[in-house]
Design a protein that fits this description.
This protein has helices spanning about 120-125, 130-145, 165-175, 215-230, 260-270, 280-290, 305-315, 335-355, 375-385, 390-395, 400-405, and strands at about 20, 45-55, 60-70, 75-80, 90-95, 100, 105-110, 150-155, 180-185, 190, 210-215, 235, 240-245, 250-255, 275-280, 295-300, 315-320, 360, 420-425, 440-445, 445-450. With about 450 residues, the chain is α/β, with parallel strands linked by helices. The chain has two domains: about 5-100 and about 410-450, Urease, subunit C, domain 1 (Roll), CATH 2.30.40.10; about 105-405, Alpha-Beta Barrel (TIM Barrel), CATH 3.20.20.140. Strands 1, 2, 3, 4, 5, 6, 19, 20 and 21 form a nine-stranded mixed beta sheet that branches. Helix 4 runs parallel beside helix 5 and helix 9 (about 375-385) packs across helix 10. It is globular and about 75 Å long.
């Protein structure tokens, strides 16, 4: 793939992934509307030529497609070369690359950075990092997501950074900083004893990484506060720490009661929004299902009855597989044995859920591992445990858009959708690792230069 992405008529190239051109609302391809004398001039359309297109919905790729972009939206798609370009149109020919919709990660943490345990791990972020420092790092994380082809994120709480995600979202929406479309969940909710920081002298009050509540009244109030202050989703911890019992079974500490969760779900659904529930297994996961959670996050161990219930209720599953393969403790320690048990259970649960028809959306828990690592490493794990490459791609495109209530607007290349496009070298249907090498990114009609160029 060449660097011709940088050559866009009347556009100014910029290095390091900076925005190089905005296409504002333009004319109709064949019949431009009549303009009033007072209207500002409308810039030309952008036409993206794709030799191979995976559109996010169809199970087969399409060949030789011209994607017409007007402003922030896709106006249409026609066979490449079937008609002359409109006067002044900008052509971006992506050559032999595979073009896809912008990818969607439905479980991220832009305020986490996969901190080295020897440097303080999770605790150092809440105890030693100034708020402005954490915001600066979150800005970098958002940009890295976009550079890797993830044009939409559902960010699953700020981990002690308050409502910082609301501010990052606003800055992106207003064009102040580059980044993906964001759906944010602010503080998250758990119970007393149900979240870090932990292990400090009981006389010392330390910050917590979640908003802690006790009782249905406090639960409902916390949901109201977070929704009022900008949460698109409410994130609830239904399990906390986990360990192996004497029989070697995985046990996870349940947190909220069923009554507490139902209060949160009832309030959140009343606002027209949804609830994501962190749940590993056991009692807490069952309460999450019985309480009406819209998505189960992680779901390390799903039994057959729970899978059946998820299918019946339409509950989404966001498994975040790859993160559990990072940073294992030594195998001869209790924590190391627990880590390996998690992985063994998780893959089997994913495979059963997939086979049963549970709705699965792509999520990585990035921030639990460094943003410098490939976010797309999750695709290979999905394929390892039973998805076809096309199913894996759809889990991060049209299926993830369904979870977010954005079907037809993101995660697809189709008329009326956001002009969010990426290109990769090679065929991701033959090798999903190709998705780790994104070479072109467009978000809302804004074209970024190729992140990597061929020699």
């Amino acid at each position: 793939m060449t660097a011709r992405y940088d050559v866009i008529e009347n556009g100014r190239t910029a290095r390091g992934g900076r925005l190089i051109a905005w296409a504002l609302l333009g004319s109709v391809w064949a019949c431009p509307p009549t303009a009033n004398a007072s209207d500002p001039p409308e810039p030309p359309e952008i036409v993206v030529r794709a030799h191979t297109l995976i559109d996010g919905r169809d199970d087969r790729p399409r060949r030789d497609v011209a994607i017409v972009v007007r402003g922030k939206l896709i106006a249409g798609m026609i066979p490449a070369g079937s008609r002359p370009l409109p006067p002044g149109a900008r052509l971006i020919d992506l050559g032999s690359a595979t073009v896809l919709p912008g990818l969607i990660d439905t479980h991220t943490h832009i305020f986490l950075q996969g901190e080295d345990p020897e440097a303080g791990g999770y605790d150092v972020q809440l105890l030693k990092f100034p708020a402005a420092y954490r915001v600066a790092r979150a800005v970098v994380a958002a940009r890295r997501a976009l550079e890797q082809g993830f044009t939409s994120l559902r960010d699953m709480e700020t981990e002690g950074a308050g409502y910082g995600d609301v501010g990052i979202k606003r800055a992106i929406d207003e064009g102040i900083i580059p980044g993906p479309h964001l759906w944010v969940s602010t503080l998250s909710i758990s119970s007393t004893g149900g979240y870090a920081l932990e292990g400090y002298a009981p006389e010392i009050t330390v910050p917590k990484g979640a908003q802690l509540i006790d009782g249905p009244v406090e639960a409902r109030k916390a949901a109201r506060e977070q929704l009022d202050r900008g949460a698109d989703w409410i994130k609830v911890y239904m399990t906390h720490r986990s360990w192996l019992d004497q029989r070697g079974a995985l046990v996870s500490q349940p947190t909220l009661t069923l009554e507490e969760l139902k209060a949160i779900v009832d309030e959140t659904h009343g606002w027209g929004r949804k609830v994501a529930c962190h749940a590993y297994n056991g009692i807490g996961l069952q309460r999450a299902l019985d309480g009406g959670c819209d998505s189960i996050e992680h779901g390390l161990e799903l039994d057959d009855a729970q899978i059946t219930q998820m299918v019946r209720q339409g509950t989404w599953y966001v498994p975040t597989l790859a993160v559990y393969y990072t940073d294992w403790d030594p195998p001869d320690t209790d924590a190391g044995k627990r880590d390996r048990k998690r992985v063994a259970l998780h893959g089997a649960s994913f495979a059963k859920a997939l086979h049963a028809g549970v709705k699965i959306a792509f999520g990585t828990d990035v921030g639990g591992f460094p943003w410098s690592q490939p976010i797309a490493q999750e695709f290979a794990r999905e394929v390892e445990f039973g998805m076809t490459p096309m199913q894996a791609i759809q889990s991060a495109t049209s299926r993830a858009a369904d979870l977010l209530g954005q079907a037809g607007l993101i995660g697809v290349v189709a008329p009326g959708a956001h002009a969010d496009l990426i290109a990769v070298r090679g065929d991701p249907l033959a090798d999903v690792h190709a998705l780790e090498q994104v070479e072109f990114v467009m978000k809302d009609g804004a074209v970024f230069e190729a992140i990597r160029h061929a020699p």
